Amino acid sequence: MRLNPSWLPACKVVELGSGLGCCGVTAACFGADVVLTDLVDVVPQLLRTIELNRGPISDGNGKAVAVELKWGSNVQPILDVWGQPPDLILMSDCVYYEESLQPLLDTLRALCPPRKQILISQEFRDTGRQEFFIGTFLRYLSETFDIIEVVDDLDEVYRSKDIHVYLATKRAFPSDGEDRKPTV
Length: 184
Ligand SMILES: C[S@@+](CC[C@H](N)C(=O)[O-])C[C@H]1O[C@@H](n2cnc3c(N)ncnc32)[C@H](O)[C@@H]1O
Fold this sequence. Notes:
This is Methyltransferase. By secondary structure, the chain is an alpha/beta fold.
């Protein structure tokens, strides 16, 4: 997305399934206060990415830390980092296997407060049932979030027809479907 980076300074951001940490660290370089998360085995890689980018993060007045978060587990250690919920959740390429759908939805619902947003980017691969998982994920997410697909505002150079970007805003009064489980 062609972001106006002026809204990122002081924005409290959690990235889920950070992997190498590219999205979260980029947000930190634009001034955001970021908690990068992933499975425990990936945390050392996240710490290394943060360390390698200390200079640009500090030049941008941002912050970045890495904390273990397995989807579906207790999110309190993440909330404890600031003593308040995040302003924004980032999620890049995290919908790709069936078993993770319910825990991922649980984590998003637990972490995201009403009226705050999740910025989701997702590659659609023509392998297995991934497209079906993504459809199922978005359908269940839409029970508590208003979702729009970002189409026009994508960078001409970096956009790809396989990569879809969504902005999900948590409704103030979730529907009574919150507790329903996906059947995939
Ligand atoms: C396809 S990678 C995407 C990495 C990065 N976000 C990117 O766009 O390059 C998916 C990431 O989700 C993480 N992941 C998978 N299952 C997870 C789970 N149950 N809990 C937390 N993270 C998980 C993986 O470790 C991996 O880093």
